[in-house]
Amino acid sequence: MENYSGKKNSILYPIQNSEHFESTESVKSRNSIINGNVLRWHKLSCSSIKDTKNDTSESSIFYSNSSNITKNRDISIDKDSWNFLEKNRVASVLYKNCIYIFGGYIPKERVNHFYKYDIVENKWIKMINNNFLLKSENNSAFLYKNKMYILCEYNGKMRWSNDLYFFDFNKEIWEVMKIKKNKQINNRYCPPSTLFGFSTSVDDVSGVLYIFGGYNGKYLSNELYILNLNHKNWIKAKQNGEIPSPRAYTIGHIFDGYFYIFGGYNGESCLNSFYEYHIKSGIWTKIKYNMDTEISNKNSNEDNKSIIKSLNDQKKKTSYTYCNNKDKVPMARCLMGSFLYNKCIYILGGYNNNFCGNLYDFYKYNIHERTWEKLSTRNNCSQNNLNIHFYKNVIYSIGKFNKKNILNNIYALKLENIYVAPSELLDHYKGMVNNSLFSDVVFILQDQHIYGCRNILSSRCLYFKSLFNIHISEKNKNIIINGINKIVDTNLHDPMIYIPINDINYDVFLIIIDYLYTDNLPVNFTLEMYIQILILAINKFNLFRLAQLCEQAVTNKIDRYNVFNILFISYRNNSKQLCKFCIDFIIHNNLLDKEKINILTLEPHLLGEFYKKSLYSDIS
């Protein structure tokens, strides 16, 4: 027992006898440094291609020499900055579990090298590239329908190109997209002038590519061009509202019917302004953040000092971490890496020509909440001209620029230290929609049945709660048993309630039931279907979020031919947001002629709204 007791004590208190005993203050200090929420970059040691040395040193397969694109050009732009900004950026896309990169510049010549990095196998693979002859640098790339598109930007000798090529992953061949030559109508149907440094984003649903800004060797641009990848034609987009000033090297993302751009370079300095472009109405809006701007301005100098200190420490090969207060707007920058994930826009690194050069920070912008958050990182690799891709909770960074070469090193960063799998609740509820196995009520519409669960439907919608109470009371009867009044189910063998619905279309009713289970509304319905659901959601079911989803879907289908009909429908059904959108659409597109004004006299209040809007526009 004594031996056991002594052994027990030595196990319980080993630290007291240790030479490495830490004081309470030391532990607190160490814990303050080891922050569990700090994200860490890791340099990957991957298998190399034959042309690349098999080591983890900073080797390179793409090089970039500096050359001044503004040489012999009489323009008022900071030439030193443009000299740096022209540095080569390889084109890349993420397809399935591989990152594909193309193009570049080696000493004395541009190349058309084509490689892929297999994320799962962690190795580089050189692609066969026999039928792609064009050699260019500073290319833009995007993915659409199993194809990697390359918009070639610069092919040497002061020649910029807007040629469009694509690599078919199924056929494994390169092809040239033949763009239709449309006649110019009101100067809208035309290809963009030859540019580089523009921001791009493709709408996967409509198959439309958006290109904003850029530089043509002489002038900066703030024009917006649209390429329909299915119809293969260019359109110069009409822009209204708070149109961004001319700029290059912004980032661009499409989300929820809007095209977002951030940052860029205006020829003198970098920018940190943020804009959203409503795709259907053609209206730009400068984003205002939900944050305390006074506090942000007050602390800006302190934050800048922190950034300078971090940059100096980075040069000394340290891994110093700096972090601004939450919801602080990122400092001005261009050439940043960026990706869109889970309703948030992430930006990494970049370059600021007037202040501190390369940036090593990491920010997240929540689109719905309109707030910025700075994410703390260690072992920072983010600089400028990075190719950033997001795959299964991991950010991959390729193409780090070290002032001389574009490197083939790959860095990885887990976006969340503890990965939480996506919720499967929605999938389970989706499987219960119109499923007789999970139902206790049957709706009868046009001789067809829709199955539902009373508990789910009544908890989500007061209309169904009242409807079920009425039919349950009709099904049950009061019976006197031994002098006691009791409610008895008259059909004990069939607990199902059957409810006829005579005033709603079967398909529309099923969509509403599906929404009550899943809280989602599909995006592939017709305009007429959305209008029917909108009217029912407002006037019958009091489902105001469903009404808002319908309003949002309808705005994506509005044009000059149907806007007035939708205006009257929205006004008469108290759909306020949709009504306001229609008014703005009509005013900004100059659709209000004498005939339309006469029609609006049927709704004097609505005509008054147009008058107030136009009066405000004249004043502003």
TrEMBL record:
Keywords: Kelch repeat, Repeat
Top-level lineage group: Eukaryota
Domain BTB residue range list: 439-525
Cellular component GO terms held in the UniProt record: Golgi apparatus
Name of the protein described by the UniProt record: BTB domain-containing protein
The UniProt record lists the keyword Disulfide bond: no
Organism: Plasmodium berghei
Matches recorded under InterPro entries: Beta-prop_ATRN-MKLN-like (IPR056737), BTB/POZ_dom (IPR000210), Gal_Oxase/kelch_b-propeller (IPR011043), Kelch-typ_b-propeller (IPR015915), Kelch_1 (IPR006652), LZTR1/Attractin (IPR051568), SKP1/BTB/POZ_sf (IPR011333)
Keyword Translocase: no
Record Pfam families: Beta-prop_ATRN-LZTR1, BTB, Kelch_1
Alphabetical list of Gene3D superfamilies matching this protein: Kelch-type beta propeller (2.120.10.80), Potassium Channel Kv1.1, Chain A (3.30.710.10)
